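Curious: can you check?
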Amino acid sequence: MEAVRELDAHPEVDVIVVARGGGSLEDLLPFSDEALVRAVAASTTPVVSAIGHEQDAPLLDHVADVRASTPTDAAKSAIPDVGEQLEIVRQLRDRGRRVVQGGLEREFSWLRSVRSRPALADPVREVDRLTEQVVELRDRARRSLTISLDRAGDGLGHTRARLHALSPATTLARGYAIVQREDGAVVRSAADLSEGEELRVRLTEDSLRATVTEIEAAGEPSAAAHTDTTGGGDPAPAETTEGENP
């Protein structure tokens, strides 16, 4: 017990081996002593129990860090075989090399697959393809807009032509006139007028005022129309009394 504490306190001690080469049950009782068991359990240095009795295990085997069947086995556990350890190191080194090589192969394979993609193998090809699409869409939009503008222009020209043909100004330009009463009502028949009534005659660019002097019924030979001037005097044929702009 005291030896265990002394060895545990020594800084150069790496492992403590408690060993005995077999013996009877009575010879094993000291290794189940409570004080010894507590000292081994409290030890900070690793303890190897090598009592060497398979049938009856003392309590020391249960608190020690490692249990060895014989002192020789304890020595092997405390001081491993150099050749065996070198073999383990070699196996671990080979395993690590294989792992690293496998990882590198996977990364190289992934890199080759990425480099073989069209986008990376020839980046300009994708740019050219997209440029062609943009140019095609631009030309298509330009053609569509031109056709729409042409159709709209044709429709506008037809509408202007219809409006011009239906415009009263066009009718007046052909030599016709619009006759109106003083209240602005359009005269549609001579039978609606009476002699002496003041009228307004609207021409293409201006207008004049006239006075009804005679009404001819339909079918009668035409006679010259006479108008009176607003300033007085004898009536004269087709004489205007006052010019107006529309």
